Amino acid sequence: MTSNSVFRTIDLFAGPGGLAEGFSTCEAGDTQFKVALSVEKDPGAFRTLRLRSFFRNLNDSGRDDYFRFANGELSEEELINRHQGAWAKAEDETAMLELGNPEHDRELDKRLDALLEDDTDNFVVIGGPPCQAYSLAGRSRNAGNIEYVAEQDHRHFLFREYIRILEKVRPRAFVMENVKGILSSSLSGGKIFELVRRDLMNAAGKGSYELFSLSPDPDKAGYVLRAEEYGVPQARHRVILLGLRTDVADCFASTNACLTKSDEFVTVGEALNDLPSLRSGLSRGEDSFELWKEAVAEAFSIAAKAAPRCSKLRARLEVHGKEILGRNDARRTSADYGAKPGSDYASGLRDPRLKGPPNHDTRGHMRSDLARYAFCSTFAELEGRAPSSRDFPEALAPDHQSWSTGKFADRFKVQVETKPSSTITSHISKDGHYFIHPDPTQCRSLTVREAARLQSFPDDYIFLGNRTSQYVQVGNAVPPLLARQIAKVLGRLLSKDNGQVKAA
Ligand SMILES: C[S@@+](CC[C@H](N)C(=O)[O-])C[C@H]1O[C@@H](n2cnc3c(N)ncnc32)[C@H](O)[C@@H]1O
Fold first, then answer.
1. Domain with CATH 3.40.50.150 in the chain
2. Model confidence over 144-160: pLDDT tens digits?
3. Which of 9, 12, 13, 37 to mutate to test the pocket of ligand 1 (most atoms within 8 A of CB)?
4. Probe ligand 1: pick from 37, 39, 40, 225, max atoms within 8 Å of CB?
5. Residue 103 in 3-state DSSP?
6. Whose CA is nearest to atom 25 of ligand 1?
7. Catalytic annotation on 258?
8. What whole-number distance in Å separates Cα of residue 38 and Cα of residue 16?
9. Pocket-forming residues, ligand 1, beta carbon under 6 Å
10. pLDDT, tens digit (0-9, with 9 covering 90-100), for 342-379
């Protein structure tokens, strides 16, 4: 393999590293992507990134120790002590820095200069600037803030940091991800997206990059990729821009450079059903298996009484309530992970060395919400769709004025077993009402691991930081499975280009 076939990948605004995971695990002929530097400001996400980089640098015996750590048989400290070389590499490949902070920018420049020193023209930049200011939710939140001036929101300008680094590194290619809101967001009367496109195309001098869509039907989809069309069990629609340096862009036209859609959708059930069943916790007050049984059976009874008389729904709610009362296993362990065969999708994410899936603990829920969870999941089990607020019986409506005005419509949403999930967003860190598990008898929101499964992270991808941070990390990520397909197309393009590239 020539050195030209290994592309050093710089991951900006890296989050927990979903995009980089896809790139580093992609097999595209003789082309490989090696993560040279991941930059992230959040301490929890940074710890996750560093651990994954460490994992990538471990040899086989090191990996055995990693799995002992994942199984709780070795502490993080012991693991690192045993494999200091791999740890040093991980420290080299990750940086906890805030782009746009002058001191941090100087530090980043030093690290980039060290990478650029050998003058090898083999860089690829991935990652997109954060999207809160562009996103529709962000904009509606800001709409209520009379002091909000879009032009002064520094997040609008973070993409300039991205441009600055493109200018410095002059990568052969970049992949920029962002929310769809970027397409319609405006600033001073102009479309943000047009500014972004213009700046990207001129990032390293006028006309230095050409931009492409990776969608097989770009005329219809533009730059938007729908993750569920590429084997991810989740409706996640994001703008993905591929930028190719003008001197290598010809290869785009001569290659079949787009993703290939999967034949079928992967469902929530296929993604989650082999994971151990867990009971929810009870928040605010004592929590034990006996108290939980009592609380959940009562929740099913409340939901059954609220459902229409003589309906199938009422009958099913009663059956579930009885089943829970008669249960004698606590279902709060990962013990049955090894036993169940998974779907093809799940098999691809499991590792036989794991005794249980990491990050698979349930949250506590308020007793008042359990009846809504019971209702939603049982409704979906029967109807094959999540109930909307219109389907909610009056007696279960939350005590919220805005419920009836429709503002909180769909505030409680179950993920339907037979379909891809709705978009996993960082909002999952808040209360989980929007991410209810499809199995009524577990009566709970999704765990971090379940969210990670819907995002196509392998089970050995461990999320560090506190649980709220872990949820945010998972919700923010690009699904590695989608990222791998993007990397594969880019790998093919760049290998065609190998040897033809003009001096940068
Ligand atoms: C959408 S997430 C990126 C997800 C990532 N591409 C992945 O696939 O996992 C954006 C990340 O940018 C980080 N971030 C925001 N502002 C930053 C800044 N100024 N410097 C560095 N990181 C920043 C956030 O903490 C967040 O983790």
1. 3-267+478-497
2. 555 555 545 555 568 77
3. 13
4. 40
5. helix
6. 42
7. no
8. 10
9. 13-19, 39-42, 45, 98-100, 127, 130, 158, 177, 476-478
10. 799 999 999 999 999 999 999 989 888 999 999 999 99
Residue 273 in tokens: 């059903």
Q: Within 13 Å of residue 415, how many CA atoms lie on the same side as its CB?
A: 31
Catalytic residue among 131, 251, 376, 443: 131
Q: How far apart are CA 179 and CA 390, in angstroms?
A: 29
Mean pLDDT, the chain, rounded, equals 89
Superfamily of domain 3-267+478-497: Vaccinia Virus protein VP39 (3.40.50.150)
- Which residue pairs, CB below 8 angstroms and at least 24 apart, start in 99-105? 99/12, 99/13, 99/39, 99/41, 99/129, 99/158, 99/161, 99/162, 100/154, 100/157, 100/158, 100/161, 104/41, 105/161
Q: Which atom of ligand 1 is nearest to the CA of 155?
A: 16
CB distance 238 to 225 below 8 Å: yes
61 class by beta-carbon count within 10 Å (0-12 exposed, 13-18 middle, 19+ buried): exposed
Query: Hey, is 450 helix, strand or coil?
Result: helix
Least confident interval from 9-23, 133-147, 379-393, 476-490: 133-147
**Dist. CA 27–CA 302, nearest whole Å:** 53
Q: Is a pLDDT exceeding 90 seen at residue 222? A: yes
Residue nearest to atom 15 of ligand 1 (CA): 130
Q: From residue 381, how far is each of 88, 317, 393, 415, 438 by CA, in Å?
A: 50, 11, 17, 10, 7
Task: Specify the residue with its C-alpha closest to ligand 1, atom 7.
Answer: 477
Ligand 1 atom nearest residue 14's Cα: 5
| Pocket residue to mutate for ligand 1, from 11, 35, 41, most atoms within 8 A of Cβ | 41
Would you say 400 and 368 are in contact if contact means Cβ atoms under 8 Å apart? no
